[in-house]
Amino acid sequence: MMPPAAPPAAPNREGAAAERIDALAHVRSARELLLAAAEHGPAVFSTSFGAEDMVVLDLIRRHGLPIAIFTLDTGRLPEETHDLMRAVEERYGRCVDTLFPDARAVQDLVARDGANGFRDSVEKRKACCAVRKIEPLGRALAGRRAWITGLRAQQSATRAHLAPRETDAQRGVEKFNPLHDWSESQVWDYLRALGVPYNALHDRFYPSIGCAPCTRAIAVGEDIRAGRWWWENADSKECGLHPGGAAVIPLRVTT
């Protein structure tokens, strides 16, 4: 994957809003982390087209940063996610590479565990994630030195100690989390101010969106990731893409 070309300049009517947003301290900090990732490159951003990922994608494309972008299509994504992929292409150009799981591995998984065997146990669910997400991720990160995510510390208990920059020794990359200290309201203020497209499921009480059979809407007062693998204990709700225990790298960001 080659870094995408810079997008065309934003229309004048959006210029004032973009200038105001870019001047905010947390947005400047996120952009500095993206610049650091680009300098440490080759760099790549993994997007699942959630609200946070749309902020990062917009920053990359709007500022013409030399960062490639990819997504993992597991074969079980909601139709609304595919609709957003199309909206992203219309706004930013064809800038996202889509990776799919190995077809034979999926066939073997379903033959062994059944179409929805991931609901039988955490082990089977993680086996499904390994085939549909982790193996393609390894291909996407091959040859990269910097991996950018849209993770936030406030998203869940498993991410509470998220650092802005970490070393993922297992995958041999440095991991950059430009939105690590953003609040949910800051994410939505950014998207609305700039008219950035987002997944329609967010308007139906889906704050966290993954595969269709593993995602549900949440009720008032529930944790924002309560709708992911809701049949499991909250402490186990990670798919293996972002394991804990990464070494933290001291951050040097200008303000």
Overview in brief:
The chain is 37% helix and 10% strand.
Model description:
- There is one protein chain.
- The chain contains seven helices and seven strands.
- The chain has helices at residues 12-22, 25-39, 51-62, 79-92, 103-113, 122-141, 184-194, and strands spanning 43-46, 68-72, 96-99, 146-148, 165-168, 173-176, 247-248.
- It has a seven-stranded mixed sheet with strand order 3-2-1-4-6-5-7, sandwiched between helices.
- Helix 3 crosses helix 7 (184-194) and helix 5 packs antiparallel against helix 6.
List keywords for this structure.
single chain, 255 residues, alpha/beta, Rossmann fold, 7-stranded mixed sheet, 7 helices, 10% strand, disordered C terminus
SSE layout:
Elements: H1 12-22, H2 25-39, E1 43-46, H3 51-62, E2 68-72, H4 79-92, E3 96-99, H5 103-113, H6 122-141, E4 146-148, E5 165-168, E6 173-176, H7 184-194, E7 247-248
Parallel strand pairs: 1-2, 1-4, 2-3, 4-6
Antiparallel strand pairs: 5-6, 5-7
CATH H-tier superfamily: HUPs
CATH-derived architecture: 3-Layer(aba) Sandwich
Oligomeric grouping of the chains: single chain
N- to C-terminal separation?
A: 32 Å
| Percent strand | 5-15%
Secondary-structure content class: alpha/beta
